[in-house]
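COMPLEX REQUEST
Ligand: zinc ion
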Amino acid sequence: MYCRVIVDIVHENVAKPFTYLIPENMELTPGQRVAVPFGSREKEGIVIGITDECDVPPEKLRTVTRKLEDYPAVPPELMELAQEMAAKAHCPQAETLRLMLPAQMRGGRVNVRTVRTARLAVEPEEAEKAIREDRRNGKRSQLLQLLLSGESITVPELARQVRDPGDALKKLEKDGLVRILQEESLRTPGGAFAEVQDPGYELTAGQQEALDEILPSLRGKGKKFLLHGVTGSGKTEVFMNAVRETLSLGKSAIILVPEIALTPQMVSWFRGRFGPVAAVIHSRLSAGERYDEWRRIRRGDARVVIGARSAVFSPVARLGLIVVDEEHESTYLNDRHPRYDTREVAGSRCDRENATLILASATPSILSFAKARRGDYVLLEMPSRVNDRPLPEVEIVDMRQELENGNRTVLSTALRKALKECISKGEQAILLMNRRGYNSFVSCRSCGYVVKCPNCDISMTYHLGDTDGRLRCHYCGTEMDPPQSCPACGGRYIRYFGAGTQKVEEEVHRMLPGVPTVRMDYDTTGTKDGHGKLLEEFRSGRARILIGTQMIAKGLDFPQVTLAGVVAADMALHLPDYRSRERAFQLFTQVAGRAGRGKRSGRVIIQTYQPQDPVIGFAARQDYRAFFESEFRRRRNGLYPPFTVLARLLAESAREEKAADAAAALEEKVQGMLDSHPEWKRKTLMVLKDTPPVKFLKGKHRRHILIKALVSKETDAFFGALTEMAAEGAEDAEVWFEINPTTMM
Ligand code: ADP
Ligand code: ZN
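STATUS: Structure written out below.
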């Protein structure tokens, strides 16, 4: 017999499977990992099929060296998924297969920890007989007694109950009563699960209605749902109940969260309610722990998996449910190769395995809501908060007016007053400042010169405190001292513009001296457990005001927060991207949703220089439907996704003329392709060579070609050809092809 193997090398020339001879005494199934000779070396590979036909000449045929595990590491459903994803992303299957395995497993880097275990080698009756015959009731009988259940028990475990069992076990083994084995031992991360005995809540009417739709789908043919519930409507409780039902049906569930570090509460709820059948996958696990969690899942010991996007590939036994929480988050798009959209992959897994999909959000993505309206998803709505708590009152403050009244600080009179009241009542507040750092940029008052990063075409940001008043680039991390005088005109008036999280923090300290605050942004959360520590500081009440970038808007539940402030709404609204309105609406609504989640009602203040902007109005009224209709119309009129597909070819080079040359050559090739494929050309709306908003990044000059096309199978084929073209690269330049990239900057 022969097997077809995908060798774990990502290269155009080895993208196809290779045929190997299976040695006489070896049994293999698809999904199994093997070591095979490849060229002059040994490589790892995955068996994709077994056949009795050999398509290589006998003199070239080589033999499988050995198998790496005695079980298929990739189960059949995931083998199919890898194949489908490779076809869609136009990439070698070796690349998508890598997603299905913990990285540590490749290259034999895991050390499997083993432990000695003992189990009965005979029927229990025979062991009982031996116990009766042993009148002294010595160690032998005690050990046999412990092993009567037939399960294997580790030797250290036995030693806790019977002192020095070594010799007695050896004798039992010699007599053929007991078998001693070397078995894999699994590390459980974070020690034993804290068993918070959490009974769950009595469901509200809204939760019950949603669940009544979901339960039949779990029991029968899986459906797809979009759970649209306002902030604080209790979506988590709905899917916890769905998970419980999934488990009781003997199936498994996968819960995806945008960023595991930001969902400590959810994780502890799941652990509390489901105990050790829950596996949590996060980046702080050691390599060994990660592998062990994967093994627990693969063996079917862990049947609830909670993790970020890559957990969608968990090899659970009998998949019943996938939940994508906060489905609108851009972290669900994997930008690195191979590109994938977690929501799509989850949907495709559910189709294949007959499982139920729940996408949940208070502010669904335009794409998902449009699909729900078209009937691809069943729309479940929870329009009110748990226990009829009111949605917070939102007030819009016109910052132009503030300036006219002589207030030149980042905090308006209204926000100052509200903060003081909130603190004096012993409550907590959060302030969103969608930019980290102290001031956004540094420029010369006389000539307008702006200090930019020497490696990127991005303004440098002023930082106080940890970097001693230095300037830092947010794209590449370069630091430098602020100039004393203007490098362009020599002027002495170098001024700081705009504001960041640090500036807001300083302003708050000046106004409320002695009130403890925490600042949460990329700079303060860089350390290993940064997020957790800062959040705990706030949750415990030690800190009273939380100041941060958009990371504070994600799914946090602090009952003591009664005030939320958006310090500078305009920054989010005016990024050069067709999605900036969608992101801004989501951000404002999510921040507003953090206020008033406890017993006291909440208040929200949005500061802006453009109070008439409709997006601000929709967010203030928390009117998702109105926002959706307006944005959907705008996208249709402007022919933006989901009505079209946007893609770009990006050329990068250390030398500007090389990037420009590459872009020109690429554009010519694209036009050539379109000329020879009129069916592609008919679906293509735009091909535009341009300099991107960020024209110099991390030491590379950049040019791109933007392509807009209608959604169609001709476009798929066209983009497939472009992917292959990009893979060939260009002379002296790197070329990337991105379809609907998360950023067009
Ligand atoms: P969402 O994710 O929809 O914003 P959460 O799931 O975080 O809302 O729930 C909001 C709050 O309401 C949480 O503190 C949660 O513990 C609580 N909660 C959820 N369901 C119920 C219920 N049925 N009864 C009482 N409190 C509930
Ligand atoms: Zn830089």
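REMARKS: The chain has a mean pLDDT of 85. The two ends are 53 Å apart (CA to CA).
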